[in-house]
UniProtKB/TrEMBL annotation:
Originating organism: Chloroherpeton thalassium (strain ATCC 35110 / GB-78)
A Pfam family hit: CbiD
GO molecular function, one term: cobalt-precorrin-5B C1-methyltransferase activity
Protein name per Swiss-Prot or TrEMBL: Cobalt-precorrin-5B C(1)-methyltransferase
Signal peptide residues on this chain, from the entry's feature table: 1-18
Pathway annotation: Cofactor biosynthesis; adenosylcobalamin biosynthesis; cob(II)yrinate a,c-diamide from sirohydrochlorin (anaerobic route): step 6/10
Keywords per UniProt: Cobalamin biosynthesis, Methyltransferase, S-adenosyl-L-methionine, Signal, Transferase
Chemical reaction(s) catalysed: Co-precorrin-5B + S-adenosyl-L-methionine = Co-precorrin-6A + S-adenosyl-L-homocysteine
Family affiliation: Belongs to the CbiD family.
Length: 431
């Protein structure tokens, strides 16, 4: 009994501690360039912990639970946070001729975290340090990459001014529609803010009054970028330095949703008036055959977030028509009203599919066979896929109706897609 009571007390303490940290981390940070350290909402809260990559921290209020192992997943840090830490270490090295083994930076929330750093080189005019990206338990494609920062002083620039440049493996903006101008290094606004803040901290502490030139490099970044959305988004030559909070939450949907929204916005700002939403490269290939008149930018992947993608497209005033293509298995979930189709969130309702077949006029015996199928793809063995089959017409129409509730008055076209690339098209008929 005593063991049970102690365990429960520990759980309460951990929960309360996490709640305090979470609440504090949501308050806005206040950056004061004249102070040696930034003011931040964590001031006065005794947490008794410093979050260090070296110690592989567990951020209690950012944890999710693994479906397979039923244990907490470890959060990590963004490329933006790593770039800020590397920049702070390099600037300290340049100004003191001593390279730190670890530096502490402020995240946008005001929380302070520490990073182990690698010394690369130092001359009279510049210094280079690196931080290895640790994404925690998230399957981040940049995990393990070294984020390098080369800094040099600019005596002619105002105090705290930072000139950002793209080194090896960091992309540049090549098309309109981004938050940054054409030709700029693909270092997003929040990472730039974090880097500036780190620079001001070091300059203030050393009583140095000048600007700084910062070049961020990522060895191997150009190869990694080919496996990301950067080429499609008009970012050439490498990866982007990203992050809005500095924290990578395992399996977070935030980054993917941001990429959907950004893809749609960029398409609009580059002359597209129609968006073709699709689940991924396979469905996109099939849809491009049907819509060869559209540029590549018009095709946007939604992954499992059909509803959110439709909402983003609806919000764009320049978007005059939305087309959405859905593979057969996802379509059976969508028709049932599920706008998120992840298998972790939604299972296939075979009875619903059988009822669709009954509604389409198929015999009760066949409908019962559909209800007993183990895999959705088995439907095509019972009812060959084709635009002339009533079942697929009804399925496409039902999916259209679910999507139409999201997009409202915007013109909508729905494409049901088979595994072999056949399409069943449905759009509202006008008199």
């Amino acid at each position: 009994m005593m063991i049970l009571v102690k365990t429960l007390l520990k759980m309460v303490v951990i929960f309360c501690h996490a709640e305090i940290l979470s609440e504090a981390s949501m308050r806005p940070a206040t950056f004061d360039a004249s102070a040696r350290k930034p003011q931040h909402p964590m001031k006065g809260i005794k947490t008794g912990r410093l979050y260090s990559l070296k110690k592989r921290p567990t951020l209690l209020y950012n944890m999710t639970v693994s479906d397979h192992e039923n244990k907490p997943l470890r959060s990590g840090f963004t490329t933006g946070a790593c770039a800020a830490a590397a920049t702070k270490a390099a600037l300290q090295t340049l100004l003191t001729a001593k390279s730190p083994s670890e530096v502490e930076i402020a995240l946008p929330s005001g929380r302070r975290v520490s990073f182990p750093v690698k010394f690369i080189s130092c001359t009279n005019t510049s210094a280079i340090c690196a931080v290895t990206k640790d994404a925690g338990d998230d399957p981040d494609i940049t995990n393990g990459l070294d984020i390098l920062s080369r800094v040099s002083l600019d005596a002619q620039a105002p105090f705290g001014d930072v000139q950002f440049m793209a080194g090896q493996g960091v992309g540049r903006i090549a098309i309109r529609g981004h938050e940054l101008p054409l030709g700029e290094a693909a270092i997003n606004p929040v990472p730039r803010q974090m880097i500036r803040h780190a620079v001001i901290e070091v300059l203030t502490e050393s009583e140095t009054r000048c600007g700084v030139s910062v070049t961020i490099s990522v060895p191997g970044g150009e190869d990694i970028a080919r496996r990301t959305l950067n080429p499609r988004l008009g970012i050439e030559g490498g990866i982007s330095i990203l992050g809005t909070s500095g924290i990578v939450v395992p399996y977070s949907e935030e980054a993917y949703l941001d990429s959907i929204r950004q893809s749609i916005q960029i398409a609009m700002k580059n002359g597209c008036s129609e968006i073709v939403l699709n689940s991924g490269s396979k469905s996109e290939t099939f849809l491009k055959t049907e819509r060869a008149d559209l540029p590549e930018l018009a095709f946007v992947h939604y992954g499992n977030w059909i509803g959110r993608a439709l909402e983003f497209a609806k919000e764009e005033l320049l978007c005059k028509q939305i087309s959405v293509g859905v593979m057969l298995a996802k379509a059976t979930k969508l028709a049932a009203g599920n706008l998120e189709t992840s298998s972790r969130q939604v299972s296939v309702d075979r009875r619903f599919i059988a009822d669709l077949a009954k509604r389409a006029g198929y015999a009760s015996g066949l409908c019962e066979q559909i209800a007993e199928l183990k895999l959705v793809r088995g439907i095509t063995e019972l009812i060959p896929f084709g635009k002339d089959e009533p079942f697929y017409q009804v399925l496409a129409e039902t999916c259209y109706e679910v999507c139409k509730k999201v997009v409202g008055e915007k013109p909508l076209v729905f494409y049901l897609i088979s595994m072999s690339g056949e399409l069943v098209k449905y759009e509202e008929k006008h008199a």
